[in-house]
Task: inverse folding
């Protein structure tokens, strides 16, 4: 099985458990595990929304959209068009389910497929890829394609290779059979440079590095 097949089948099987991280109604033990081990998931979500404000009228691409939580939040904050791409069918089903439930199906389009193959036509004001590069063996062509599709802002996260939770995380993914890719700061900066990205803000968020790329041309 290729890296991509392993990642896809992991997230297809794990979709509901992953999505539950965003829910508040859970046992004290699950809440503790989600806060200590996966707290970054919700911190990334809050930071991304803050960085992309104002969302009104924007078109947004979310790469590795999972259960659609980001896409739905973009739509609820006034985005005009949101496209989410994910190759795990169960994630896309959940995303469609959530979008229907909160009434943003007309704004959100979810594509079941591999990025960058399953990409719609046209450009987007902004794009995000959060909690995604953890599962990607070669980020350079993906970031380069996101850059081609994005007019203004790109937000991406990369998990740190040196962090106190890394040994346990590595072991957990080894046992589950899902590949996991972790990065040093210099590796991320090299990847960005090879993908043609130079103008960015660098942030540290819990166990992740977060990069906010500005693609806007300054008028001369
Ligand atoms: C940890 S989830 C993150 C989901 C979402 N961004 C979030 O933070 O809520 C990562 C997702 O990336 C998807 N994925 C990984 N590589 C992909 C690829 N090349 N094309 C499309 N989806 C991919 C997986 O199926 C999985 O649903």
Result:
């Amino acid at each position: 099985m290729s890296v991509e097949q392993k990642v896809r089948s992991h997230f297809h099987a794990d979709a509901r458990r992953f999505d539950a991280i965003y829910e508040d109604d859970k046992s004290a033990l699950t809440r503790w595990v989600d806060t200590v081990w996966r707290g970054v998931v919700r911190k990334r979500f809050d930071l991304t929304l803050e960085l992309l404000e104002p969302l009104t009228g924007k078109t947004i691409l979310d790469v590795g959209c999972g259960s659609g939580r980001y896409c739905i939040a973009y739509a609820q904050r006034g985005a005009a068009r949101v496209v989410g791409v994910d190759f795990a069918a169960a994630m896309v089903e959940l995303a469609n389910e959530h979008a229907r439930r909160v009434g943003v199906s007309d704004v959100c389009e979810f594509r079941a497929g591999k990025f960058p193959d399953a990409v719609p036509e046209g450009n987007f004001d902004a794009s995000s890829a959060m909690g995604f590069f953890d599962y990607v063996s070669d980020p350079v062509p993906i970031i380069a394609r996101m850059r081609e599709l994005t007019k203004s802002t790109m937000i991406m996260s990369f998990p740190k290779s040196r962090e106190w939770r890394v040994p346990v995380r590595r072991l957990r993914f080894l046992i589950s059979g899902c590949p996991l890719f972790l990065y040093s700061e210099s590796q991320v900066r090299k990847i960005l440079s090879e993908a043609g990205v130079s103008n960015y803000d660098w942030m540290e968020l819990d166990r992740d590095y977060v990069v906010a790329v500005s693609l806007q041309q300054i008028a001369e």
